[in-house]
Amino acid sequence: MKRGWKRLRWEPDDINDLRNRLNRNISLLNAFNGRITRNNITKLMQSHNDHENRMILDWLSPMNYATQQSNFASRCQAETGKWFLKSSEFQTWIEKPKQTLFCPGIPGAGKTILVSMMIDELYVRYGNENDIGIAYIYFNFRHRYENGLKDLLASLLKQLAQAQLSLPDNVRDLYGQHYKRGTLPSLDQISRNLHAVISKFTKVFIVVDALDECENVNKLCYIFLSKIFHLQNKHELNFLATSRFIPEIEAMFEGTPCLEIQANSEDVKRYLRESLGCLPRFVSRSTELQEEITAEITKNIGGMFLLAQLHLESLIGKKSPKALRVALASFSSGCSSYDSAYHDIMERVQRQMKDQKEMAIQVLSWITYAKRQLTTLELQHALAVEIDSPCLDKHNLPELDDMVSVCAGLVTVDEESKVIRLIHYTAQVYLLRTANVWFPNAQAYISRTCITYLSFEVFGAGPSLSEESLKDRLSSNTLYDYTTRNWGHHTRMSSIESEKWILDFVESKQKVAACSQTMVYNEYHDFTESQMTNLHLAAYFGLQKLVLALLERQHDPNLKDGYGRTPLSWAADCGHEEAVWLLLEKGADLNAADKDGWTPLEWAAMMGHTALVNLFLDRYASHSSRDNGGTIILSLAAENGYESLVKLLLDRGIYPDFKNSFGESPLLLAADNGHEMVVELLLSRGAGIDSKNKYGLTPLLSAANNGHEIVVRLLLDKGASIEAKDRYGRTSLLSAAENGHEAVVKLLLDKGADLKSKDCHGWSSLSWAYNYGYRHVMSLLLEKGAVFESEMTPMNSTDRVMAGAQIYRFKPITFSRK
């Protein structure tokens, strides 16, 4: 036993060595486990941060142009577009600072595809450089920007913010400020944050496609471009835009480099050669015929790439070389050739079998008349609806491939966004113009489909009890979002609003309540039970016959919804004159105020409905009444630039200098927003040219602060005080210099503005320009004799915010359609 034990005894050195190895392995194991834990924690934190960042960015703007970019880029033909990318104009734009390049082109020239190539080229060159920002916008005639300029700037802010290595603190702060309160940032806040994010880059590229498809060329497009040029003046920003040849848009780019986009013949030939495989087999066996097709189509497209595609697709069904050559001989170029090509396609649609033809007409009806772009699943649900059925049978959903193929090339699907649309806006123009030939009853068909959907039994339970359940309802019923917002528009356009099946729907209180709740939630992002009645909805959509039918059934014209609004308030807001007349004749209260204190008169003024304002004033509405924020109707009209409405109100004797609760006169509001025609009109009627608000701002100070050069010149010519100061001691020159408005600074200097004037912090116009790095403004000031001060009073961040923010004020959030 002892001898055995001796054999088992280890030497002390061996024991120490074993102990050390055990300790070392335990330490390694602990370190390994610790590393795994840390990595897991890091991954969890990164996942959490990524999720939080995505939530913030999506809150900032729901627009995702990246899906459109991916779709357009995927359609690019290899080795095409090089003529543009290698052009001296594009190379100058991409390499030199603060460049603008305008690229107009005829319809169908291939502008959008070329834009996707440009954007890809930018990412190839600069995608890995963190100090260079890239943002872009694809305008589309189908898309409506409910919040106007704010939506566009928010999209740019989102793209540039997510390009940073980490989400900028100012964007996080903006989210934190608003999210918990359930509010949204103002245009001013979006604009200031966009400036802040752009300043983090050494250079920013902004590319905008199809300015001509902006919903309002004369207003939204103008102010958007003005803002872009203002950003370019302040920052190292390069801007490129495409458009059709529209005089109003071309005028905005006067004096800037221009490069016309048209289908390059070599690109067209390359596309055709790659696509000949879709033609009948006899084409593939004849090199001569292939060359003939390529040559004839290239010769007859007149610079329109789209026409090459349409001509090629028209040859797909030809049964012999002779028939194909006859078709080739009929091709022509020019814009009128689109009509011929689209007519041929619709003739092919009509020659299909009965069920295929019916499906094609339904698809084209929906896509042509839809109030917004539809997803593939939404359109599948729409086509699956069986009129007067109590529910949707999922077994009735058509196949997407069939929906596309029966339309003979007129329809395409964006794979990334899952949007189904016409191949080009020229197809939309053609189909709308010839709708009476191809689908004369489209609006009635869509209206009845919508109302059948809204009448499904699943909505008979009434409004959702929670926001989560409402989201579930929308997710489970794909077409519900569209139908709640648009059934009335299609019904109004079809003139069938007095049909029994419509009355049956609107007399169902639960289904109407469910519909209005969803409409308000989707339209205004407000989860409440809106308490809108059938008469409210009829007035909102301007369904004149339905309004009359409901009034004859003794529905109360003065019943208020959850926002305190009457049917008359909604009809006035939406500009439906006939519905307004009917409601007034049946005793609607013209002066009934909602929860924000707004009457139908104020809503009509806010939306610029001049005829309705005139009607209400004739009916003795109180035109000196105020909302809870103190805004009168003349102020609303002036602030929004409604010249004809301002003239009407002044002609009716409304006092031109009535101030709101911020001390702002109509003239100041018009000048602040750059509405020169309204400014001129108010001045001609005796408005006080130097009237100040409670922050000491005059109309001239406001116009200079926002860079409205034409308004500044107009006010100066009319005698505005060039040295008037706000409560912080800033003159118009200081304000213009602080905000980098070079043209306004030059104008003020030419008019004799005092270079030596200083604000309450001891800062001059040169101090402000230097502080923000506006080199062009500094050069102007130095040329005029400005000198750097040896000492300047330091300004902390709070001082700077206060000094720069007095013209921005918070107003009550109203339930507005703007």
Topology summary:
Blueprint: H1 2-8, H2 12-60, H3 65-74, H4 82-85, H5 88-95, E1 100-104, H6 111-126, E2 132-138, H7 149-162, H8 169-179, H9 187-198, E3 203-209, H10 217-234, E4 237-243, H11 247-252, H12 265-275, H13 281-284, H14 287-299, H15 305-314, H16 321-330, H17 336-350, H18 354-369, E5 374-375, H19 376-384, H20 400-405, E6 411-414, E7 419-422, H21 425-433, H22 435-438, H23 442-454, H24 467-476, H25 480-494, H26 500-506, H27 509-524, H28 534-541, H29 544-552, H30 567-574, H31 577-585, H32 600-606, H33 610-618, H34 633-639, H35 643-651, H36 666-672, H37 676-684, H38 699-705, H39 709-717, H40 732-738, H41 742-750, H42 765-772, H43 775-783, H44 797-805
Parallel strand pairs: 1-4, 2-3, 3-4
Antiparallel strand pairs: 5-7, 6-7
Helix pairs in contact: 2-7, 3-6, 7-9, 12-14, 14-16, 15-17, 23-25, 25-27, 28-29, 28-30, 29-31, 30-31, 30-32, 32-33, 32-34, 34-35, 34-36, 35-37, 36-37, 36-38, 38-39, 38-40, 40-41, 40-42, 41-43, 42-43
Describe this structure in words.
With 818 residues, the chain is mainly alpha-helical. The chain folds into 6 domains: 2-58; 61-252, Rossmann fold (3-Layer(aba) Sandwich); 265-334; 349-439, Orthogonal Bundle (Arc Repressor Mutant, subunit A), CATH 1.10.10; 441-530, no CATH class; 531-625, Serine Threonine Protein Phosphatase 5, Tetratricopeptide repeat (Alpha Horseshoe), CATH 1.25.40. It is built from 44 helices and 7 strands. The strands form 2 sheets. Strands 1-4-3-2 form a 4-stranded parallel sheet, with helices on both faces. The chain has a 3-stranded antiparallel sheet with strand order 5-7-6. Strand 3 (203-209), helix 10 and strand 4 (237-243) form a beta-alpha-beta unit. The longest helix is centred in the first third of the chain and has 49 residues, at 12-60. The radius of gyration is 32 Å and the shape is globular. The termini are far apart. Residues 353-433 form the GPI inositol-deacylase winged helix domain. This is Ankyrin repeat-containing domain protein. It comes from Talaromyces proteolyticus. Residues 80-244 form the Nephrocystin 3-like N-terminal domain. ANK repeats lie at residues 530-562, 563-595, 596-628, 629-661, 662-694, 695-727, 728-760.
